Amino acid sequence: MSYRIAIVEDEPAIRANYAEALRRYGYQVSDFPDRASALQAFAQALPDLVLIDVGLGDEAEGGFDLCRDLRARVPHLPILFLTARDSDLDVISGLRLGADDYLSKAISLPQLTARVQALFRRLEALRAPVAKESVLRLRALRVEVERMRVSWNDQDVPLTVTEFWMVHALVRYPGHVKSREQLMREAQIVVDDATVTSHVKRIRRKFEALDAGFDEIETMHGAGYRWRP
């Protein structure tokens, strides 16, 4: 299967370079210079993954706005920020909006394609026919592993691909502490500790939106996180 990638980047040369590099790996690539043209195209057909710059032309935070729009429509769509804006505040803002990863433009093309391939490998779990489904249950939680679906009190929790695998890592062994490094390994991302913390905070907020008393994810200071035993 040839996956479709959309690149939303306002610099023509950069946009063309990324598009050419990803096409060499066999991906179908479409590219857009601004949020408006991307949204117009996505209204007709969604790609399988989106790479977004933060600043888009006259919109200093157009990429953030686009991420917010897409995430509201498609919870599982892989979204990666690829931008020169790599301050802690920008990274945290992007992850809070639901991006699966936030990459600096200083990243090498082999590293970028490795991140893209990792997200697609996990996305294939949603599309593969399920011969025997693995389901994890714990109190009000239900995790359908092959379908990458999580529910709490029979209500779906709209997790991103990265957030799903972090929850899965915690739930497989309730009470066992998972370090930030272990959570990164499970989610196949390479980020700093603060970014993992941002992901966990966002996961908590999604559960709390369904249940104000949610307290299953415990912070073990200096060690990591665990799902309440």
UniProtKB/TrEMBL annotation:
<dbReference type="InterPro" id="IPR011006">
    <property type="entry name" value="CheY-like_superfamily"/>
</dbReference>
<dbReference type="InterPro" id="IPR016032">
    <property type="entry name" value="Sig_transdc_resp-reg_C-effctor"/>
</dbReference>
<feature type="domain" description="Response regulatory">
    <location>
        <begin position="4"/>
        <end position="120"/>
    </location>
</feature>
<dbReference type="InterPro" id="IPR039420">
    <property type="entry name" value="WalR-like"/>
</dbReference>
<dbReference type="InterPro" id="IPR001867">
    <property type="entry name" value="OmpR/PhoB-type_DNA-bd"/>
</dbReference>
<dbReference type="GO" id="GO:0006355">
    <property type="term" value="P:regulation of DNA-templated transcription"/>
</dbReference>
<dbReference type="GO" id="GO:0000156">
    <property type="term" value="F:phosphorelay response regulator activity"/>
</dbReference>
<keyword id="KW-0804">Transcription</keyword>
<dbReference type="Pfam" id="PF00486">
    <property type="entry name" value="Trans_reg_C"/>
</dbReference>
<dbReference type="GO" id="GO:0005829">
    <property type="term" value="C:cytosol"/>
</dbReference>
<dbReference type="InterPro" id="IPR022305">
    <property type="entry name" value="Response_regulator"/>
</dbReference>
<feature type="DNA-binding region" description="OmpR/PhoB-type">
    <location>
        <begin position="133"/>
        <end position="229"/>
    </location>
</feature>
<dbReference type="InterPro" id="IPR036388">
    <property type="entry name" value="WH-like_DNA-bd_sf"/>
</dbReference>
<dbReference type="Pfam" id="PF00072">
    <property type="entry name" value="Response_reg"/>
</dbReference>
<keyword id="KW-0805">Transcription regulation</keyword>
<keyword id="KW-0597">Phosphoprotein</keyword>
<dbReference type="GO" id="GO:0000976">
    <property type="term" value="F:transcription cis-regulatory region binding"/>
</dbReference>
<keyword id="KW-0238">DNA-binding</keyword>
<dbReference type="GO" id="GO:0032993">
    <property type="term" value="C:protein-DNA complex"/>
</dbReference>
<dbReference type="InterPro" id="IPR001789">
    <property type="entry name" value="Sig_transdc_resp-reg_receiver"/>
</dbReference>
<protein>
    <submittedName>
        <fullName>Two-component system OmpR family response regulator</fullName>
    </submittedName>
</protein>
<feature type="modified residue" description="4-aspartylphosphate">
    <location>
        <position position="53"/>
    </location>
</feature>
<feature type="domain" description="OmpR/PhoB-type">
    <location>
        <begin position="133"/>
        <end position="229"/>
    </location>
</feature>
<keyword id="KW-0902">Two-component regulatory system</keyword>
